[in-house]
Structure formats: structure tokens, C-alpha cells
Amino acid sequence: MGLETPTPTEVQNTPKPIEEPKSAKKPVKEIVSGVREKLSSEIRHRTLQVKEYFGKLDQEEFDKLLSFDFRTHLKENPPIGDIFSPQEELANLRSLPKENRREALDIFKQKLAAQRKAWGQCRRFIERSIEFNHDAPKNQLVEWVNQFGSNYGFTEEQKQIAEQLIDGYYEMRQRVLEARQKQPDNIALIEELTGVNLAKSDDVRVSVGPMSIEIEVNPFNCGRLYEKSDNPVIQFEYCGFASQTVGEEPINYVVINTNRWIRWQELDPAAKRTRQHEHEHQKNRLFKAVFEGQLGSDGNRNLYWQYETEQDPEIKRALLEDYFRSRRAAALELAKDEITAYLSEGIMLRKSSLKRKFFQQDNPYDYLSYPRDVESKKEDALYQDTAQRMLVQEYKATIEEAVGALTELTKKEKYSSQEAVALLTDKPLSEWSKTVKRLLEQR
Question: Which long-range contacts (CB under 8 A, 24 or more apart) does 375-378 make?
Fold first, then answer.
């Protein structure tokens, strides 16, 4: 008997062979190999981060680390592609019909946040390149501006501003190098910079940093240099300070209090780690002064002015949130600086001490007192409600969450204090919790 041709119904009802899940088709060896490769890459990344913190990288390793970090940034902060000018986009928003404005405003805020985050990371890449090689070629620094700019829509004006800031660094560095070259004698150089004549017998160390003369002296001489007086009134107990000479072309100098690391002599006889940290602590302040000068205070003033003059309620709210977000980010950077400074000395801030440290009014670490407590805005409901949410509640939650993550990272000696600082120092506080979770999973 011949074979009969099945009817369409029979074909339809014929059970189909069970297909293996797509993931099962990939050989186990290939899956394991992929996991191992990813884990190995993460371990290499962490190793390079720690080596960078302790100044142990060579040029090839440093280039690899920046490439790692750039790929990570692209993954965590997806590119926006096309040129994005906040000013032009705002003008377009105002011209839209009200029914189309909400969706356009959401897109605007997403792109604005991505671009601002990219600008901050771009600036950090430039700083790190300068820290690694004080005389890094300008074209290398500009190339980072171009790479971030092409992915996050930097306008030509934004790129020009970035290049001006880079030029500003080289001008400052040249002044410092020339000052040191013209005056090789340490005591004479200090007198030229500060007007204070230290004794030849004083224990003084002078070196040239990226864009400052760095001076290491005892607490008494720190006070003399700080007050520019042979008879200081206050007893100087701080880590040091950053200042500059008077004139059209000022020269930056950093004064470090050597007494701050004496108590660690038994643990670290050469006090290398603490001395390095105090140098970096002060240099970081100079970097912020240079690289945030044009886009920091001026940028904030523009945001505030835009908020004040805006008539549309929805756009007005978005501008106020952007202004507060910018101020909060700057405050969180200062808070991170203090937290990592304590950690580098082996001191872990507890949640119970955070209120006294960062959230208590009328203390030096209340970084948001001005935008939060503006007298003329006491009756402005939008301003007050937004400030309470962003500058009090969210700010407090971010710091507490970051410190909690930091505690988790270092408890039971999973990571040392120095490893923790190295692994988190280039991340904003808002990303510490996510970063720590990933690190512990890999561990």
C-alpha cells in the first residue's frame, strides 16, 4: 500500500519536535570560557585601579585602564548621539503645543542628564591623564573631549570651553615650572610666593606638582604661611591649604602640614600613603578650581537665572531640578572627598556620625546651606518643596547609602581600606552602592 499524503489538518495537529532553548545550544565549555574571560577582565580592571591609586602604573597599563573605564561608562550611561544644545532644545520646547510638551520635556531631561554625566566623566579623564603625566600631550587630552563629545552630543561651544580649560592648565603649569627654575633655593622660593622668610634650619621640602609648588612644613610654619605672618595667631591643626600669589598671572602653591601623619609613623614609617593622600587632597581642590571654574559657578548662575525668568511651570520645574542637581553633585563630591580622606587614614565614618558631619546646619560640611536656605525663597512653594526633596531627603539618602555600601565593602576584610578608596574614588557617591554590589558578587 502506498503512502498517503497527509491533509493540512493532520499536518497542523502533528506534534512538533521539542526545541532546545537557544541558550542550551551554546556549548558548556564556551559559556564557562565566556564567564571566565569576563571575570578575568574585571579582575584586571580592579588591579589596574588599585595600581593607579598607588602610582604604580606604566603608560601602557594606564591607557588600558582608561579604555576599560570608557567602555564601562558607555555601558552605564548610553550615548545620545546627535548634537545636544540645552539652550536650543529649551527654545524648541517653548514653541511646542502644550499637549506635546510633556513627552519632549522627558526626553530633554534624559539627554541633559546623560550629557552632564558625560561631561563630568570627561573632565575626570583629563584630570587623571594630567595626574599620571603632568606633561601629557595636549592632543591626548583633546582626544578624550572628542570621544565623549561624539557620543554625548557636545556642541562646538562646549568643546571649545573644554579646550580652553586644558590650555588654562598648561599655562598654570608653565608658570610653576618657570618659578622653580628661576629660584632653585627652597627658602627663597617660599618667600617669593608667600612673603614669609623661613629659617635655613627649618625642615622644609619643596616640589613641583601638576600646577602648583608643593611645600611641606611643620604645623607652626604652616600657620605662618597661612596667615602670612611671622607670629601666627591660630594654632594650625589642618592637613594643609591651597593658595596662590597676587597678580595678573598668579602661581598656585599648596602647603602640607607634616605633623598630620606623625601618629602613623609606627604603622607606616615613611608615611608614604598618608603624605601622598594629603598631596592629592590639596591638588584635587586645585583641579576643581580650574576645571569647574567656567562650568561650575557660572553654569549654576545661568541655570538659576533661567529658572527665575522662565514662565512655563513645567519647564520652570525642570530648570530648578537641573540647578539643584548640579549643586547637589558638587556637594556630594566634597562629601566624597571627606569620606575617602577619613578612610585613607583607617577611619570609617558610621551612619550615626553622618548627621553631625554633613547634615547639621551651620557647620563647615553643610555644603548645601546656600541653595537650600535662600531667604528670598522662603515663600516660594516650588522652590521649598523641590529643595526639601533633592537637597535634604535625596542628598541624605545618597550619602547614607554610600557609607553603608563602603562599610559592606570593607567589613570582614573583604577589601582593605586602601583597596576600597582605589576602587571607589572615581565613582560618584550615587554609584557606590551599585559598584560595591558588583564587586562583592565578583569577589
Answer: none
